Amino acid sequence: MNTAETATENVFASRDYKRSRNAYVIQCAFEYFVSIFVSDAFLAKLLASLGLSDALIGIIASLVSFSFLFQLLSILMMQHITNIKRTVIVCDTVSQLFFLGLYLLPFAPIPQSARGAAATALLLLAYFVKYLISSMYFRWANAFVDPHGRAVFSARKEVISLISGILFTLAAGAMMDRFEAAGNLRGSFLCIAVVMLVLNAANFVCLLLIRNASAAETAQMRKPFGDALRHVIGNRSFLCVVLMTSLWDVARYLTYGFLGTFKTRDLLITVGTVQIINMIANIGRIFLSGPFGRYSDRHSYAAGYRMAMLMAALAFGVNVFTTQKTWWMIAIFTLLFNSSLAGSNQNGMNILYHYVDPDYLIQAVAIKNSVAGLVGFGASLVGGRILAAVQENGNVVLGIPMYGQQLLSAISCLLALATAAYTYFRVEKLPHRST
């Protein structure tokens, strides 16, 4: 081992770096708790209580994909940032408060006709601020992680979020079910708002504990807009990665945003039961996170991504056959889908280290997520139209009784298989940088 490698190891073993990594891991767990409240069954239950239709709920739930477009602004914003830590803390705190505002809507003196617009506005504002700084936060926080064990670290971080998230969702789901059984669903929304306020404070403390980037490091991340576009858009390997992740986002958002109401309205599953299913599925994801991380560090991020796509395709294939009579198959779908995320989420971000100059990583993350999010939101709009058409036809497709979500799952299955094939035949063949 040469002197440079020894110095690098010593840096990652320093107290500042260890504290920063630990704070990063814990902060991600708190952020995950908040994401639970603004997705899936919790968000569907909140929006349904505001009087929104299934199709509109699915589209609003998929706003997260459209919001990725906001990351493009971070390329311009980064040119004027002098303190990354302060910028991230302020923006992240404001974003969390907008999310909290969603659960105060049932108590706000807003006309029924305007509640859907208010919910959409709050979600868009929350995601706007969140994704404005997400790419620079990813680059900043991951700077304290040894690149030779990045996938394993990502897996460990995910496992901690999932284990704590299992207990959190189980308690939150049981709480909501108890309030609803007592005829006081609005009371559960107030409790959730209080919990989100506490989580925001904890999240704030964790961000304070992460070491700030030096002035030199910050300056290195600032790149002229035109220069950044030339280095990133002109990179053919990067464009292949963008196409790969965009295919997956189309497959995912075409269907997933509409499954919250599918579970509670069509399959007649309670929110508490949904969270138990999610808990079991996340246990499966926990067991696979480590092997996915080791496999990706040993082979490549692309290879790990391909394995995840095959698992996701199987999940959507199972969901094609889920009805009220076979409602238990939604548990199999959730187990397979959540487990696939162990390979798609972290590999989908880390893969950029293989194909992009680190000096342009913030810009690459922003562009990749923006493009994938835009096509993902477009897919949710198409999915909403398909779902509405099937429901208007009495849940019948070509003479076959079928929920719209079953048809959407079939399309998503084919798209996930196409993503796996493209990853194997194209992305895995690309020459990549050493991490």
Description:
The chain has 435 residues and is mainly alpha-helical. The chain has one domain (16-429): MFS general substrate transporter like domains (Growth Hormone, Chain: A, Up-down Bundle), CATH 1.20.1250. It has 21 helices and 2 strands. It has a two-stranded antiparallel sheet with strand order 1-2. Helix 3 crosses helix 4 (54-61), helix 16 packs antiparallel against helix 17 and helix 17 runs antiparallel to helix 18. It is globular and about 60 Å long. The relative contact order is 0.15. Mean pLDDT is 83; it is low at 3-7.
Question: What keywords describe this structure?
Answer:
two-stranded antiparallel ribbon, mainly alpha, 435 residues, Growth Hormone, Chain: A, disordered N terminus, 1% strand
Structural class: mainly alpha
Please report which band the strand proportion falls in: under 5%, 5-15%, 15-25%, 25-35%, 35-45% or over 45%. under 5%
Mean pLDDT: 83
Helix content class? over 70%
Total domain count: 1
> What's the CATH H-level superfamily name?
MFS general substrate transporter like domains
* Shape verdict: globular
User: Low-confidence stretches at least 5 residues in length (pLDDT < 50)?
Assistant: 3-7
CATH architecture field: Up-down Bundle
Q: What are the SSEs and their pairings?
A:
Blueprint: H1 3-12, H2 15-37, H3 40-49, H4 54-61, H5 63-67, H6 72-78, H7 84-102, H8 112-132, H9 134-142, H10 150-181, H11 185-209, H12 215-221, H13 225-233, H14 236-255, H15 259-266, H16 271-298, H17 301-319, H18 329-350, H19 352-355, H20 361-392, E1 396-397, E2 400-401, H21 404-425
Antiparallel strand pairs: 1-2
Helix pairs in contact: 2-10, 2-11, 3-4, 3-15, 4-20, 6-20, 7-8, 7-11, 9-20, 10-11, 10-16, 10-18, 14-20, 14-21, 16-17, 16-18, 17-18, 17-21, 20-21
